[in-house]
């Protein structure tokens, strides 16, 4: 009966998976949404069913035009022709909760997209959520025993996100937040929202004149630099996740456009998720621990992120994590992909008391979906070959004290300074800057607010060097470790220092560093005296 649940050993039966998908479509919007959620829950459902449910995106029958136009007029409080000079006679896209039309504003002649909610959908959603919750209460004992997850909690998380998507005024605010986050990034396009024309059931936003990622052939034939576009896309996704803590929760191919000038554009911001500052830092910790192959700390990161209950014994999980990571990355970046890691993770979450929090199921969906787009457009694309340089650049250049601390963790392993790792970080970071700055989006001169764009033509390590110098003088532990790094193994590591300098000499503003050192010298001396006096008093 429960052949779709994780842990069953029955032979894969694609027909049964298709039956489940078709049944969810017949049952309505809430069930379609539930299927989309299950498609990204490896802790609940088997991989073959996950793959089939991933098809549930925009293949939903539209509702009649006249019904949609009546809803638009009700929300606007005036006739369609008073606001729009023309509107498409067919829907551009239809999804579980609404559908989209193309129109032209009468006053400004601007092309816009109108998103209209399905009629009478709210009571249907509430009814379905009540049914889901009742069923979850009935099955909770089974889910806790067999899957190690709380069915009621999963339904509550799902219901909360679904109800958020019903309010288009909230989506309008999400769009404005994304515009603010990417305002200085010339490689990302977020559509403008016309808030005066929006309501709870209608959303009017700028029309995106690009090529949907559902049409990879058109992208390849459109003269777009595919590798550059994918590099921009991966970097934008990582910025959402690790910098802003606000990321697109449903970046399937229908919601992502390739612009002809090299930019990536996003639409449909009803499903977004927020990561706290603490969770962002823990994710970066996990990357650092993966680089250092510190699997015990990686297991602890799972607890801090909410995958494991506090107090859970992580010792049995450590060898499993080590096996997953080494099998996935042991042959190099070319053989690594998130789909294979997720497949192995399926087994891990079934064998151990791991539950994926809703926000991280969205993270998994986001990464898997965008990696899938990458492989569709360019089968030999290496996701980590873009992701690692981005992380390297952030570690080397971000002034955030927490990231400075994590950089130190990366550079020291078992108390020994990793010269080769520092060189690799610098090389990867420079590669990230070179790839991003070569994107055609940087070459466009006729857009507004060009002067505000932060175009990085080279890796700037000036602030990092200044912070490092200050840390060397003030922190006795760091000073001792760096001096040991130069003299370990009973030899002076001058050549390693020279090699590093050659890598960064063009990326450091020497006069600026000198001026800052002179300017900060009294402060550094004061901090050094305070540090010394504190150590004396402590002794």
From TrEMBL:
PROSITE patterns: PROTEIN_KINASE_DOM. One of its GO terms (molecular function) is ATP binding. Residues 86-417 form the Protein kinase domain. Keywords: Kinase, Transferase. Pfam families: ABC1. InterPro entries: ABC1_dom, Kinase-like_dom_sf, Prot_kinase_dom, UbiB_kinase. It comes from the Eukaryota. SUPFAM superfamilies: Protein kinase-like (PK-like). Belongs to the protein kinase superfamily. ADCK protein kinase family. PANTHER family: CHAPERONE-ACTIVITY OF BC1 COMPLEX CABC1 -RELATED, PROTEIN ACTIVITY OF BC1 COMPLEX KINASE 1, CHLOROPLASTIC. This is Protein ACTIVITY OF BC1 COMPLEX KINASE 1, chloroplastic isoform X2. It comes from Juglans regia. The lineage of its organism: Eukaryota, Viridiplantae, Streptophyta, Embryophyta, Tracheophyta. The gene is LOC109009585.
């Amino acid at each position: 009966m429960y052949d779709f649940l994780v842990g069953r050993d029955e032979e894969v039966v694609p027909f049964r998976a298709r039956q489940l998908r078709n049944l969810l479509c017949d049952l309505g919007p809430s069930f379609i949404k539930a299927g989309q959620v299950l498609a990204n829950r490896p802790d609940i459902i088997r991989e073959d069913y996950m793959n089939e449910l991933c098809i549930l995106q925009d293949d939903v029958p539209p509702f009649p035009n006249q019904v949609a136009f009546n809803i638009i007029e009700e929300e606007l409080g005036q006739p369609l022709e008073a606001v729009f000079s023309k509107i498409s006679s067919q829907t551009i896209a239809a999804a579980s909760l609404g559908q989209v039309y193309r129109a032209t504003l009468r006053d400004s002649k601007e092309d816009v997209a109108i998103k209209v909610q399905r009629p009478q959908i709210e009571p249907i959603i509430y009814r379905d959520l009540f049914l889901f919750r009742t069923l979850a209460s009935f099955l909770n004992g089974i889910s806790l025993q067999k899957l190690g997850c709380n069915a009621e909690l999963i339904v509550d998380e799902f219901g909360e996100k679904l109800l958020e998507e019903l309010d288009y005024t909230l989506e309008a605010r999400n769009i404005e937040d994304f515009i603010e986050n990417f305002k200085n990034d010339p490689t990302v396009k977020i559509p403008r929202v016309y808030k005066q024309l929006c309501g709870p059931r209608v959303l009017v936003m700028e029309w995106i004149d690009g090529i949907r990622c559902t049409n990879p052939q058109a992208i390849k034939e459109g003269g777009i630099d595919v590798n550059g576009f994918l590099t921009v896309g991966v970097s934008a996704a990582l910025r959402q996740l690790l910098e802003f803590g606000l990321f697109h929760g449903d970046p399937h191919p229908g919601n992502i456009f390739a612009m002809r000038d090299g930019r990536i554009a996003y639409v449909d911001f009803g499903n977004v998720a927020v990561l706290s500052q603490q969770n962002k830092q823990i994710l970066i910790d996990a990357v650092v621990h993966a680089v250092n192959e510190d699997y015990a700390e990686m297991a602890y990161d799972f607890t801090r992120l909410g995958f494991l209950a506090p107090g859970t014994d992580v010792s049995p999980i450590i060898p499993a994590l080590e096996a997953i990571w080494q099998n996935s990355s042991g042959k190099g970046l070319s053989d690594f992909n998130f789909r294979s890691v997720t497949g192995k993770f399926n087994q891990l979450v079934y064998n151990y008391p791991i539950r994926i929090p809703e926000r991280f199921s969205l993270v998994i969906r986001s990464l898997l979906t965008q990696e899938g787009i990458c492989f569709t457009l360019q089968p030999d694309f290496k996701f980590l070959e873009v992701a690692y340089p981005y992380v390297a650049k952030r570690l080397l250049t971000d002034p955030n004290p927490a990231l400075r601390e994590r950089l130190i963790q990366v550079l020291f392993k078992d108390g020994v300074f990793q010269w080769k790792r520092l060189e690799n970080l610098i090389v990867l970071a420079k590669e990230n800057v070179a790839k991003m700055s070569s994107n055609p989006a940087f070459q466009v001169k006729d857009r507004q607010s060009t002067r505000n764009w932060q175009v990085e033509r080279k890796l700037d390590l000036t602030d990092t060097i200044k912070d490092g110098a200050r840390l060397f003088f003030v922190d006795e532990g760091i000073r001792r470790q760096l001096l040991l790094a130069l003299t370990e193994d009973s030899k002076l590591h001058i050549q390693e220092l020279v090699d590093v300098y050659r890598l960064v000499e063009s990326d450091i503003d020497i006069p600026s560093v000198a001026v800052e050192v002179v300017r900060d010298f009294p402060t550094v001396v004061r901090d050094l005296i305070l540090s010394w006096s504190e150590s004396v008093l402590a002794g």
